[in-house]
Specification:
With 194 residues, this protein is α/β, with parallel strands linked by helices. It is 33% helix and 23% strand. The chain is built from five helices and seven strands. The chain has a five-stranded parallel beta sheet, sandwiched between helices. Helix 1 links the parallel strand 1 and strand 2. Helix 4 crosses helix 5. It starts with 10 loop residues before the first strand and ends in a 5-residue tail after the last strand.
């Protein structure tokens, strides 16, 4: 008996990976360096894994990386990436993700945020064409506070950084602590001066 299987069909999935390069601060230790292909290597590995299984079903998966240097033209590269594929992985800061999501060319596309935990992207700045693969700062803070509550560590101290991302994470920690009835006994800002 032979049955027609709709899963066994020719499927060609092209994926675009748009990466906005950003200036990064120096690492605390040369032993803890960030790989140059961080994110990209994982995406390629995922596509290779899908291709291995998909080959049996007549599926083909491919990925093309589009990189925007610091100060480069994000919109031009985003348009080029969206012309290549309607499935676009975004590795960029929140403001750049929103810029791409709001492009007319992005209407109806599936954009996947892989690098930005900003809570506002899942709330007030949510876009219908934007999905997220990592937890928001609020979700991470909730998880940490639930763990601390389980351990009965209810009196906490918080040291926060001075940049914008640190400030948002601090707000998420304060909000989650209040939600779970934990007290911040002390707070201090670390300014990274010797």
């Amino acid at each position: 008996w032979l049955f027609a299987n709709p899963a066994l069909s020719n499927v060609d999935v092209k994926i675009g990976y748009l990466r906005q390069e950003v200036s990064t601060p120096p690492v605390l230790s040369n032993l803890d360096s960030t790989p140059e292909d961080i994110g990209i290597a994982g995406a390629k590995l995922g596509v290779d894994g899908n291709q291995t299984t998909g080959a049996f079903l007549g599926h083909k998966y491919s990925i093309e990386v589009f990189t925007v240097p610091v100060g480069g033209d994000l919109v031009a590269q985003a348009r080029k990436a969206l012309a290549h594929s309607r499935l676009l992985v975004l590795d960029a800061p929140a403001r750049d993700i929103l810029t791409v999501a709001d492009l007319p060319e992005a209407e109806g596309a599936i954009l996947i945020n892989t690098s930005e935990p900003q809570t506002a992207l899942r709330g007030e700045h949510c876009r219908a064409n934007l999905l997220h693969t990592l937890p928001s700062n609020a979700a991470r803070a909730d998880a940490l506070m639930q763990f601390l509550l389980k351990k009965r560590w209810t009196k906490l101290a918080m040291i926060s950084g001075s940049d914008v991302a640190d400030a948002e994470l601090s707000v998420a920690f304060r909000t989650a602590a209040a939600k779970f009835g934990l007290k911040l006994a002390a707070e201090k800002e670390w300014n990274f001066e010797a």
